[in-house]
Write a structure and sequence with these properties.
The structure is a single chain. This protein has 5 helices and no strands. The protein has 104 residues and is mostly helical.
Length: 104
C-alpha cells in the first residue's frame, strides 16, 4: 500500500514538472467592453482610469450615492487597491460620478 501511495505521489510530481517545463505562452481574449458611461465632463478620464483595473460595469451597477460617497470610493481605489490615479484625475472622476451616477 505504501509503494502504491509513493508511486502515485511520484507520478503527480513528475506530471507537475512536465507541465512547468513546457515553454508555452498562454493568452486569453476578453470580450469587448459593452458598457457605455453616461455623457458628461470627466467621462473620458473615468473610462480610462477605471478600466485599468475593472470593467465599467462596476461603475454603472453601483447604488446611486452622493458626492461624498463617490469620493470615498475613488479614495479607496487609490489607497487600498493602489489605482494609479493623480489628484486631479481623482477629482475629475469623483465630480463625473457624482453628476452622472449620483443620488437622484
Amino acid at each position: 500500500m505504501r509503494r502504491l501511495a509513493l508511486a502515485v505521489v511520484m507520478a503527480a510530481v513528475l506530471a507537475g514538472v512536465t507541465i512547468l517545463a513546457a515553454d508555452e505562452t498562454v493568452s486569453i481574449s476578453l470580450p469587448p467592453e459593452r458598457t457605455v458611461l453616461a455623457e458628461g465632463p470627466g467621462r473620458e478620464v473615468t473610462e480610462t482610469q477605471c478600466r485599468v483595473c475593472h470593467s465599467l460595469d462596476y461603475v454603472t451597477t453601483q447604488p446611486r450615492v452622493g458626492a461624498a460617497q463617490w469620493q470615498g470610493v475613488v479614495t479607496k481605489m487609490r489607497t487600498v487597491f493602489g489605482a494609479p490615479i493623480s489628484d486631479a484625475d481623482a477629482k475629475a472622476i469623483t465630480d463625473y460620478l457624482a453628476a452622472s451616477y449620483g443620488a437622484r
